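User: My collaborator and I are trying to settle a disagreement about how two of our proteins should look. Neither of us wants to argue from intuition anymore, so we agreed to look at predicted structures for both before our next call. Could you fold the first one, then the second, and keep them clearly separated?

Assistant: That sounds like a sensible way to settle it. I'll keep them separate. The first protein:
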Amino acid sequence: MNDRGAAVINVFEFPVRCRRGESRARQRVCAVQEDAGAVPDWSIFAPCGALHLVSALGCAALITIVVRAGRSAGSKDAERAVRRSIALFGLAEWFVDNIAWNWHGIDVSEGLPLQLCDVAGVVAPLALLTLDRRLRAAVYFWGLTLTTQAFIQPTLTQGPANLLFWCFWISHTVILGCAVYDLVVLGFRPGWADLGRALAVSAAYLAVVVPVNLLLASDYGYIGNPPPGRLIPPFVALLGPWPQRAFVVVALAAMAFLLALAPWVVRPRAPRGTPSSAGAS
């Protein structure tokens, strides 16, 4: 990976381009300078390290705190206030995130809010605000199967000294947090109909990003065919060349949806000789 043209920024500053005209993927490695000795460790993020673990645990702690606040609310009005606060914070963070990423102009091949987690960053707060079943289903399946990948294999190189580090972790925490809140506090329980809703919303997402990827040579949803030099998550890269990997990504996502549904629709068979609930009644 070529590190030339890197720039380190203070956490209170917006991100800067490495050099004029470079892609957003290149911006994501701006924390790494050619002269590595000049870069403090806190300006760089490396997956599978101590900082990765601390960040993920911190996000889990935040989700736990918010869920406990919702469960301990003394009334429906109090719980509604907690839920609205989460949703409004999530929407505000989404705007800050996208402004920060594109502070020096939008690279349409990477800077549009069309990654799945960009879309989920709006859908998740709206699901808590409106309690619309379609949105709640999408958040459950997206959050627990796809957004969790950001915690396992984050596409991030900036450390805590960079605003984008905080945007990355907070935005994904909002999505997963909304899914967990809906599950634990509001009692959302997905069924086969919800799987259908999530698949329909996902199909609508694909109907938008597939032509956009073909038109812009972008990789929104990690199902595109970006030009050489663009960052691709390691796991996605292992799925083979394009367009093969696009079909594999979609198939794996559908399988993950089924796995996320299984605990709610698969019932253990009663032991032989045990009366059924119908017979017992």
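The second protein, kept apart from the first:
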Amino acid sequence: MPALYSKQQEMNTKNRWNLYLKIVDSQMKRMLQTLRRVGMRQVWLPAAAVTAAALLSGWQAGRQTPRLLAVLPSAAVTPDGMAIAPDGDLVIACPNYASYAKGATRPSVPACLLRLDKKGRVRKWVETPVLAETGRSCPMGIEFGPGGELYVVDNQNWASGNGEAGEINQGRILRLKFEGDRIVETAVVADGISHPNGLRYRDGQIYATVSMLPRVKRPDGLLTSAVYRFPAGAHDIHVANDLKDPNLLATFVTENRFVQYGADGLAFDRTGNLYVGNFGDGKIHRIAFDRSGGVAANTVFAQTDMDNSLDPALPGFFAKATAARLRSVDGICADRNDNLYAADFSNNAIVKISPAGAISVVAQNGDTDGRGGQLNEPGEPIVWNGRLVVSNFDAVTGPDKVNTHHDSPATLSVLRPE
């Protein structure tokens, strides 16, 4: 979501968080002094201290403290989607939105893919193919196919928007083939997409979320988003971004009027159900398929306990918002036991959703720079080598976001799958 908020709003949010941090620092010092006096026996703590400490330091019972996995090179300004390469390396897509100067149409740091190996060595792999019309590339969701080819969402209009009437639609789904560190073939699976975001490959098909369909107008003015499905071997499918698209699989409506941003992360479970996050509503939908591959059901599997009617500009919003679970849903991944992990982008948190739909917060931080491993506006989690790796997007601000500014260098955090 583009950062479209004023400097004054940014400073107001930052001032609130600085106040919270001062409260936490004071209360935690008192807590430690008390523990020393009683020899670590049971103590009473003020409720405010417990709440603030849980929010900002992740010390709440049952929550983890994120650790630093990697500091990324300067070629990576905005890390986002991740995928495991055939050789076991972790590949990270970097659209580098945070490197766009005000009014610029191209990033100052070209979009690229990184590689992180099992020894923790990270390097720039390749720059992703630009669209000739715009001179830029914007890789977000990525996934490898069975032949080692990489499927890439190119979200061309994430920063520039789709025009007043939704007339600018330049997003693509790319299929890249490699020889070593070179892209030797680029194919366009689909183009003309308004706002493609997440991507998954399954059984010869590409599933991609489209977070905004501005051409679809509803009487209530709410946003429609979707999941599209394309044959992985297709070429040059042109998307119309309306409800008549033959590749349209399922649609969603975002009811949160303060955060009009829709389908984002997606993941499959072992039985083939597809889970799709509705970013603004803090919902995860489960799509079940019939024998022919059609949609048999599209139901809400899990959803936030946040009251989305609350105005982020009003006093008291942040206290309620940051205590909520799954306030937003960015990237999603599944582990081998069909637990889902979701990036709660707005709350700076990682959330676990059990196969029964129970929601728990794995880790949560306040407004950080990520240098100590803390979450810094998490974009996507992935289970890699038994660890839960998180990309820190760190590019969006606003009155509903914990994040108040962009930090350098970019980082990856790591947690333990639960």
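Some points you might bring to the call about the second protein. The chain has three helices and 25 strands. Confidence is low (pLDDT under 50) at residues 1-14, 20-59.
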